[in-house]
Amino acid sequence: MDITVAIDCMGGDHGPHVTVPSALDYLHSDPEANIILVGIPDAIEAELRAANSELGPRIRLHPASEVVGMDESPAVALRGKKDSSMRVSINLVKTGEAQACISAGNTGALLATSRFVLKTISGVDRPALAVILPTSIGHTYVLDLGANVDCTAEQLFQFGIMGASLVSSVESKAYPSVGLLNIGEEEIKGNEIVKQAAELLRDSGLNFYGNVEGTDIYKGTTDVVVCDGFVGNITLKTSEGLAQMLATYLREEFNRNLLTKIAGVIAMPVINSFKRRVDHRRYNGASFLGLRGIVIKSHGSADKYAFGFAIKRAADEVRGGMLRRISERVAEFSRHPQLPSKEVTR
Amino acid sequence: MDITVAIDCMGGDHGPHVTVPSALDYLHSDPEANIILVGIPDAIEAELRAANSELGPRIRLHPASEVVGMDESPAVALRGKKDSSMRVSINLVKTGEAQACISAGNTGALLATSRFVLKTISGVDRPALAVILPTSIGHTYVLDLGANVDCTAEQLFQFGIMGASLVSSVESKAYPSVGLLNIGEEEIKGNEIVKQAAELLRDSGLNFYGNVEGTDIYKGTTDVVVCDGFVGNITLKTSEGLAQMLATYLREEFNRNLLTKIAGVIAMPVINSFKRRVDHRRYNGASFLGLRGIVIKSHGSADKYAFGFAIKRAADEVRGGMLRRISERVAEFSRHPQLPSKEVTR
Question: How does it assemble (chains A, B) (predicted)?
Fold first, then answer.
């Protein structure tokens, strides 16, 4: 299936130096993909030259004169930089010239701008940010990861619908299981909002597994894990911190003395194979869900390899018909009697 | 310093089979400790005989005829089992016969019973559960870990005071740094309660570092990390799940074929040394803070080695004068003008 994606070439810590070569590599791997490189022409052309490459029928340049800074306020980016590479990329999705866009830029600005330009799907209160995480038995999708700090039960319910739609469009699973992240202490099973969200999910006809605990994320108990953005963001960043600490410990132990260094050389192929398996770059690319267009957020520090996974995620969502699936399922549930319609359609 | 601790011998997945041998080992390692074994006499005496040991001046038995089940409702345990080993252990703290008690029993029942029997310190709304976690540079204390699902800003503030008091009593740090767990997205820096808690902490005279993110826990950015029990519980359990997944991956990689198995044998001492360093058993023993007595919760699945760390934690808190420190600091802040007194003393 022929698709076109727009790439905000200026976003991220490394800008065109990463995004342009990554786009060129992607074109080789996906012969039915077309790419629009968005950004400052001189900077993009310099990277094309450095890669001994040039524009062509499958890769074209769309100029944008401004760049959103990584620490810039979303409000300033939204109001003041109407010709930023980020905004122009999103505009290309709005006009239909591209079916998705990918940016490694500032998350807050990307969220605010894509919400302003694209608007949310009818029936969705607020967009959510979904990531994919490895598990003992495969991988799982977790949302929200920070787009929404305080959530209502209805919003958590919508995250469940959107997460399930995402998985059914990019994986071969018609009825993905959905878990609601909660705590497992005996007396105190979650706060009021989570309890209400569980009731909505239970009555929804989704494949609702029930409450899951923190341990269930990496066990892979469900295909989708729903939580509010505060919990999701902290959970994800705690995981990053723990993984870094364990990697540091392992390196220190292998560097302790001559004997451990020799053991390290012998074990190197195994350690490298382990590292490849947990390489977070393979999970790069968070999806904004609930917008009238596909927007993928790459990690700001992504390298060429990692950025390629974000492009692939965009392509998978386009080909899987994710937008249509979300719209249909949200519309279906908006008609569902147990949901107060004002909450869902406001 | 001579101390006496009460051990709920019947609690946990393994009961006296773990708690009694662990108590005996502890007495050897701490010549100024005395232990009261609480539970069903026959069961405890059988374990003493199996260990070729007997009661003596430093280890005595206090009978209790009932046992709180691991899945029992806290309300049932509290109202229906007045002679449970858990309750009798807490009573010994109340009467002053012991300065602390340790239980591997059901968390909800332990919290409800110790709160009912011991009461909270004047000025503390609700007790919190604090755990110690390893970091890249040492360790950190995190609270609350599940005792309080919905917290007010004042409660988070009290957790900061109690956490700092705990650290200053068991570590050689007079002014431990306190971080408030929050998210780092650009636009959306935390929910309202966390923002208000940050203001209270900033004006408190505590060594308040400011907001910390999930990654900061394992970096060891601060000595204390404060969060509500919902976030804390999920964070801790997600960490457990991730560590288990990584351990499984590593084992699988070393078992892949004959060559990797040989590499595994050669790397074994390094891997074992790594495992010792991250062994969660060394961090066993969560502290209930804010009660008029010291209560330590051991993990239900703790083995003899792990349970010993919970006993040591109790002893450290008694010797460090933790109760007095918490009372003094809470009283100090209750007089502090910026805190609405009704919130603090209700």
Answer: Homodimer. Probably interacts with PlsY.
